[in-house]
Amino acid sequence: MLAHGGPTGRTNTAFNARIQFFTSRGWAVLDVDYRGSSGLGRSYRDALRGHWGERDADDCEDAAYALVQMRRVDPHRIAIRGASAGGLTVLAALTRGSLFRAGISAYGIGDLDALARETHKFESRYVDTLIGGPEQRHARSPIHRVNRIRAPILLLQGSEDRIVPAAQSRAMVDALRAARVPVAYVEFVGEGHGFRRAEHIEHALATEYAFLCKTLGIRSAEPLVPLEIDLP
């Protein structure tokens, strides 16, 4: 399951090397245009206002349940992956005790209060529209609900990220470890918001694949990159 960023971005039908990587290895991939996505009308995009971290997670969960009901996927091997704003969707979905058995958050948002304080000026008031004031930000921040998470999580982060600073992911890792949630963390030195160097992109994708194989009990036909997962 993929949750796009933005969060008012959108999926598209253009070639996606990440999706191709997994489908060529026998994985099913669903890329969700959850409520708030662009390109489906103004009312659909505005449906996320005040409900970021709720309706987007609801839609990803509903999509997963629909696939289970259609018997298109193994209900014991469903994972969710998102980057940036999609990372918040991932973490929010996992705090609900949903059927997702693993999650991957790339430079994702775990603390909405910290985002409002630390992100760059251009998006500094974005959270007010999509979440609300300090009380709503605190209540909906996954970092304050890690005790509800049961699935293992992989966090990927760039050390020079100015939109979602590395401190966000590091604090999330500390909170997950304290809550005894299985977690793996990889930080790429010199990378910002979205990885640019080819070797880092390749390593990040190989790490995601290794994480999913290990946590979902899938035997890989190819060698996996070394990955340390902190287990309780």
Describe the protein.
The chain is of the alpha/beta class and 232 residues long. It has a single domain, classed as Rossmann fold, CATH 3.40.50. 38% of the residues lie in helices and 11% in strands. The chain is built from 9 helices and 6 strands. The chain has a 6-stranded parallel beta sheet with strand order 2-1-3-4-5-6, sandwiched between helices. Helix 3 crosses helix 4. The relative contact order is 0.13.
Radius of gyration: 17 Å
Number of strands: 6
- Average pLDDT confidence is 92
Q: Low-confidence stretches at least 5 residues in length (pLDDT < 50)?
A: none
**What is the strand content?**
5-15%
Itemize the secondary structure elements and their pairings.
Blueprint: E1 2-3, H1 17-23, E2 31-32, H2 42-46, H3 55-69, E3 79-83, H4 85-94, E4 102-106, H5 112-118, H6 126-130, H7 134-140, E5 153-158, H8 166-178, E6 183-188, H9 198-216
Parallel strand pairs: 1-2, 1-3, 3-4, 4-5, 5-6
Helix pairs in contact: 3-4
